[in-house]
């Protein structure tokens, strides 16, 4: 695990007991990777939310983060982290599309040598990069960009995770997958499915995991 300080304790509704209850819920929903569950229990989700709603941080639900975007449900974050890892416990290079408030980045960080996170909305990109730097996450690099293009200079990636749903999988993401790499993302418009693409040499295998509900994957940058 990378050297990340996850020790900041919460108070009141954000206590360890509240976090443990969330972990129990995730376990019942089928999350099996104990290391992922332990990282979820140590990650201060309340610090990624506006104070007015931070008391709901350890409920298993998505919440608004401004600019029409949402922080993903803890179940979704845990499931995607588990799926991008597969049988591996650590990934060299990981690409995340849709930094949002940075919560998924915080959960991915300890499983990655280097994490590259792309966001298209400038204020979200700025706030998340500042917040994660202040919290001591050192292995994450952020960029303001349209994730349709991936991040070619930094690839290939052992894992790619997108938190917004494109109508079809962007070709660049498939091309930037390292051999043995795994790409997890929602695909579709009104009806979405969480999709896993795995690369084995020149073979790419696509598998539908479950139904999903994410914000749309949009083109261009918003300042
Ligand atoms: N994992 C985030 C989820 C944020 S919601 C969190 O924990 O908060 C998904 C994010 O994807 C939004 O912030 C949205 O602006 C971003 N997004 C949508 N399309 C994108 C694209 N083409 N490139 C980069 N980011 C995109």
Mean pLDDT: 94
Percent helix, as a range, is 25-40%
The best one-word shape is globular
The CATH topology of one domain is what?
Answer: Rossmann fold
What is the C-alpha radius of gyration, as a whole number of Å? 16 Å
CATH class of one domain: Alpha Beta
Q: Cα distance, first to last residue?
A: 35 Å
**What is the H/E string?**
HHEEHEHEHEEEHEEEE
Number of helices, counting only DSSP H or I runs of 4 residues or more: 6
Structural class: alpha/beta
Strand order of the largest sheet: 5-4-3-6-8-9-10
Question: So, CATH architecture of one domain?
Answer: 3-Layer(aba) Sandwich
Ligand kinds = S-adenosyl-L-homocysteine
Percent of residues in β-strands: 25-35%
The biggest sheet amounts to: 7 strands, mixed
Task: Give a brief outline of the structure.
The protein is an alpha/beta fold.
């Amino acid at each position: 695990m990378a050297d990340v300080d996850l020790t900041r304790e919460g108070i009141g509704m954000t206590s360890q007991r509240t976090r443990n209850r969330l972990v129990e819920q995730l376990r019942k929903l089928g999350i099996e990777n104990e290391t992922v569950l332990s990282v979820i229990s140590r990650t201060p989700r309340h610090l990624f939310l506006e104070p007015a709603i931070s008391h709901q941080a350890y409920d298993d639900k998505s919440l608004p983060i401004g600019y029409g975007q949402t922080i993903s449900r803890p179940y979704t974050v845990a499931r995607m982290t588990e799926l991008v890892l597969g049988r591996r416990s650590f990934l060299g290079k990981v690409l995340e599309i849709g930094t949002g408030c940075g919560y998924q980045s915080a959960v991915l960080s300890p499983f990655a040598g280097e994490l590259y996170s792309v966001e298209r909305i400038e204020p979200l990109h700025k706030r998340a990069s500042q917040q994660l730097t202040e919290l001591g996450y050192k292995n994450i690099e952020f960029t303001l960009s349209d994730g349709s293009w991936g991040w070619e200079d930094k690839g290939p990636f052992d894992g790619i995770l997108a938190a917004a749903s494109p109508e079809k999988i962007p070709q660049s993401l498939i091309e930037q997958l390292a051999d043995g790499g795994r790409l997890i993302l929602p695909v579709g418009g009104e009806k979405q499915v969480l999709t896993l693409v795995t690369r084995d040499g020149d073979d790419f295998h696509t598998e539908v995991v479950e139904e999903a509900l994410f914000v749309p994957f949009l083109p261009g940058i918003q300042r």
